[in-house]
Amino acid sequence: MKTKALALLVLILFASAPAHAQDDWWFGLSYETSLASGSAADFAGGLSWRGAAFSGRRMTSENTSVGFMTGWHIMDDVSRETLDFESEGFDRSLDLTGEYFRYVNAFPIMLNGHYYLGLPGETRGYVGANVGVYYIERRVEAGICRWAGTLGASSAPATTGRLRQAVPAASPTGTSSSA
């Protein structure tokens, strides 16, 4: 276990180190974590360890740089629930019980600026800011473990099986309850 933790730490340190190129351009790849808040945290959990970013900066003077950053952050959650689907024209509703996999994929596209403290050639702190947009995609996949109920035939047995189906985040339109 200690070997795996040490290997992960070394990987993070090397993956987070910027590479310096010619003409005062800096490029870097980084491993990133994400902490969802608000409705994203309600939908797909809080802390995620799955993320990566690519950034580039160009020095405009000894103490300032401008650049960009883009990345991919994945947040997910698994829950076992029963969802009630109301059907128009039928006197019954359909209850689906199973595991629901919820995903949020966030893609930041940012421009940034930095001001570096201290003198060139020394260890320097900096202050920076990013301005841009996030493209966010929400997805629900349903792993249906048991279909409790039938439509139209009251004597038909309930079926069991596994079905993975992508559905839009806006559906189902029924109510949700814990199983």
What's the SSE blueprint?
Elements: H1 2-15, E1 18-20, E2 25-31, E3 34-35, H2 39-44, E4 47-48, E5 50-59, E6 64-85, E7 94-116, E8 126-148, E9 159-160, E10 164-167, E11 175-178
Antiparallel strand pairs: 1-2, 2-5, 3-4, 5-6, 6-7, 6-11, 7-8, 8-9, 8-10
Give a quick set of tags describing it:
11 strands, mainly beta, disordered C terminus, nine-stranded antiparallel β-sheet, 2 helices, elongated, 179 residues
| Distance between the amino and carboxyl termini | 35 Å
- Portion in strands: over 45%
* Chain oligomer state: single chain
Structural class: mainly beta
Low-pLDDT runs of 5+ residues are 145-179
Mean pLDDT: 73
Description:
The chain has 179 residues and is mainly beta. The chain has helices spanning 2-15, 39-44, and strands spanning 18-20, 25-31, 34-35, 47-48, 50-59, 64-85, 94-116, 126-148, 159-160, 164-167, 175-178. The longest helix is centred in the N-terminal third of the chain and has 14 residues, at 2-15. The chain starts with a helix and ends with a strand.
